Every structure is written in structure tokens, then in C-alpha cells.
Amino acid sequence: MKIIETNDLTYEYPDGTKALEKVNFNAEEGKIVALLGPNGAGKSTLFLHFNGILRPTHGSVHVDGETVSYDKKELLKIRQKVGIVFQNPDDQLFAPTVLEDVAFGPMNMGLSNEEVDERVKDALLRVGMEGYEKKAPHHLSGGQKKRVAIAGILAMKPKIMVLDEPTSGLDPRGASQILKLLYQLNSEGMTIVISTHDVDLVPIYASKVYIISQGKIIKEGNPQDVFEDVETIRGANLRLPRIAHLMEILKKEDKLPFDKPYPLTIGGARKRILKEFED
Ligand SMILES: Nc1ncnc2c1ncn2[C@@H]1O[C@H](COP(=O)(O)OP(=O)(O)O)[C@@H](O)[C@H]1O
Ligand SMILES: [Mg+2]
């Protein structure tokens, strides 16, 4: 089932910037879907449509089988279903303490105090921010802010979690911890949609990839198929994953027998190289 779906979504900002043009994007329930594109391609603009923060200029958005409508009651409902973690945590965090920030969402859902406490504790633990409850969010590092922002969304237990560049600004360890968490949440049934320009991470986690460039979806499919189209990838100011690029060089420059499709991950490359040694 398509849990998020856009139909010919076009969006123009009030100043006339055409940010999205006839975008058809969908996320299957229970999957990890990646939206890959360079800066300014329209990733954040698209995501802000998934819980009704932005309203299409043309076209429509469907969530969990229902067309998004823009009255207050419907918007509240959809925002409990679709949790969006903004690209910039400063747009998300506002409360005086980490605890209050993470508790805000679940409290507004009318849950009991015990349930709220439980969820806040669990969410902070999962993002590795337990012990920071009394800190002011603006005293945290960028990576810590990002993790608290994720905890705030997590605490609402949304069916779908949408993360706009969740690993940008994080150190490698922080990034891999966040991705592991997303993988874990997904294995528990949550649908995950992420945007990124980090091509190395996409093939490890996503089962489906969309490439967006200048407001248009120019390619979609599983990572292997998408990254096989090297011209499109490079034409969109993106690159191959480093591992695939290395295999391409070994093939083209050094005439080693690594044919397309190039492996996209270290695991895939390892298998291919070992196979060459076997034969
Ligand atoms: N509030 C805004 N008003 C006008 N133009 C905007 C606004 N926000 C973004 N844009 C423009 O819309 C396009 C898409 O931006 P954005 O969705 O932020 O891209 P991405 O997230 O992929 O970097 C860009 O050309 C950007 O300059
Ligand atoms: Mg963005």
C-alpha cells in the first residue's frame, strides 16, 4: 500500500519560485524511501507537503489512503500520523529544556502523564540523549540538537517518519547511529522517508530511491537500477557512491573485470572482489 502519495504536485512559492513541478512520489508502507537531490532541488519543499504544512499549487497529496485536506481538524490528524524532522533543528526545538521539548508532542496528544513520561524517556534513550533532560536545547551541539528533534517526533509514535537530511552536520559516528536507529524503527514497522545528498548512505538503507533535480523527479527505482544510470546521476550534480566509482575506475582505467552493475556498498564490493579471486 502507498502510505504517502503525491499526484502531479506542483508548488510555487509566493515570490514566484517554482519549486516543484508535477511530482509523483510515493512511499510504500513499511519501507525506507530516499529522496536524493542536490541543494535547492526541492527536497524540503516536497517534504513539507507530507503533513500539510505546505499546500500544493496544483495536484494533490494522499496519506494513508486519504486525500490531505487543509482544515484544522484534518491537519491535526495527519500530523500525528506523519512526523517530520526538519532539516534545521533550530526550526523544530523551542522549549526551554530538552525534556519539555520532547514531551510537547505527546502531551498535546492528550496522553496521561505516565504515558508521556514513558515515551519521553524511551525516545531520549533511543537517540542516545538520556541525561540531557534539563539542558537547554540551544546549548546543545548541532548533532545533539538533531537527535533531540528526532526524539520529539519519535515520542509521538507516528506511523510515518519523514526526516529532512537527518545526517547532515553529524560526524560519521553520529550519522551511522541515526541511520541504525532508523533501520531499527523500520524493522518495527515504521515507514521512513529521508532526504539526503549523501549517495554513499542511500544504497545501504533505502529500498527505493527518487532522484530530484530542479523540482522534478528525474529517476526512481531500487538503488541498483537508479545508480546504474550514471549519466542521469552526474547530470543532476550528484555522484556515484565511492565504492561504485572505484569499481568503475578499476574497470575502465585498469581493465579489471568488474562489469556493470557496479556494487554500491562495501559488502557488495567485497563479494565481487572475492569472487574474482576464486575464479
Ligand atoms: N520560502 C521560500 N520562498 C521562496 N523560495 C523558496 C523558499 N524556500 C525554498 N525556496 C526555493 O525553492 C527551491 C527548492 O528549495 P528546497 O526545497 O529548500 O530545496 P532542497 O531542500 O532540495 O535544498 C529553491 O530554488 C529555493 O531557493
Ligand atoms: Mg532542504
TrEMBL record:
InterPro entries the record matches: AAA+_ATPase (IPR003593), ABC_transporter-like_ATP-bd (IPR003439), ABC_transporter-like_CS (IPR017871), ABC_transpr_CbiO/EcfA_su (IPR015856), Co_trans_ATP-bd (IPR005876), ECF_ABC_transporter_ATP-bd (IPR050095), P-loop_NTPase (IPR027417)
GO biological process: cobalt ion transport
Domain ABC transporter, first and last residues per copy: 4-239
Keyword check for ATP-binding: yes
Molecular function, one GO term: ATP binding
Membrane topology: Peripheral membrane protein
Gene Ontology annotations for the cellular component aspect, listed alphabetically: ATP-binding cassette (ABC) transporter complex
Keywords linked to the UniProt accession: ATP-binding, Cell membrane, Hydrolase, Membrane, Nucleotide-binding, Translocase, Transport
SMART domains the record matches: AAA
Subcellular location(s) of the protein: Cell membrane
Function: Probably part of an ABC transporter complex. Responsible for energy coupling to the transport system. Part of an ABC transporter complex. Responsible for energy coupling to the transport system.
Family statement: Belongs to the ABC transporter superfamily.
Protein name: ABC transporter ATP-binding protein
Organism: Methanobacterium lacus (strain AL-21)
Source taxonomy: Archaea, Methanobacteriati, Methanobacteriota, Methanomada group, Methanobacteria
